[in-house]
Amino acid sequence: MATLALKGGTPVRTTPWPKYPVLGADEEAAAVRVVRAQNLCEAFGTEVREFEKEFAAYLGVRHAIAVCNGTAALHTALAAAGVGVGHEVIVPPYTFVATATAVPMQNAIPVFADIEPRTQGLDPAEVAKRITARTRAVI
Fold first, then answer.
1. What residues does 109 pair with on adjacent strands?
2. Residue 127 and residue 121: Cα distance in Å, rounded?
3. In the beta sheet, which residues pair with residue 111?
4. pLDDT per position in the chain (139 positions), as tens?
5. 54-87: buried (b, 16+ CB within 10 Å) or exposed (e) per residue?
6. What's the predicted TM-score (pTM) here?
7. How far apart are CA 66 and CA 43, in angstroms?
């Protein structure tokens, strides 16, 4: 087995990783257009609504909702699914914290099901053990 780069072996990569996110001239022009039009909020402009319409059309669905981050996306999805008081949502314990914390934002209860060591995704057998009459979703 080769020696790890950390221990003096040859690194797999010798050039710096690209910066994230990768933004170019198109993104810069769009940002300048929004700032100059003072459309920094959906209430004052059309950029977000236009994006939602175009994205919905791309997906072939009637509606799409733009949100500011993954936490807001999870919260929105749970609300749209009707998750509420006393409902249970099965989540993995090995994930970003928002996966579980979005659940109490709907006054529901997160129920942890373990992951598969090989895939690090939810173990379907563990999920099945935790489904009750109060289960409304699995994330």
1. 88
2. 11
3. 90
4. 689 999 999 998 899 888 887 889 999 998 898 889 887 776 677 888 898 999 999 999 999 999 989 999 999 999 999 999 999 999 999 899 999 999 999 999 999 999 999 999 999 999 999 999 999 999 9
5. eeeeeeeeeeeeeeeeebeebbebbeeeebeeeb
6. 0.72
7. 13
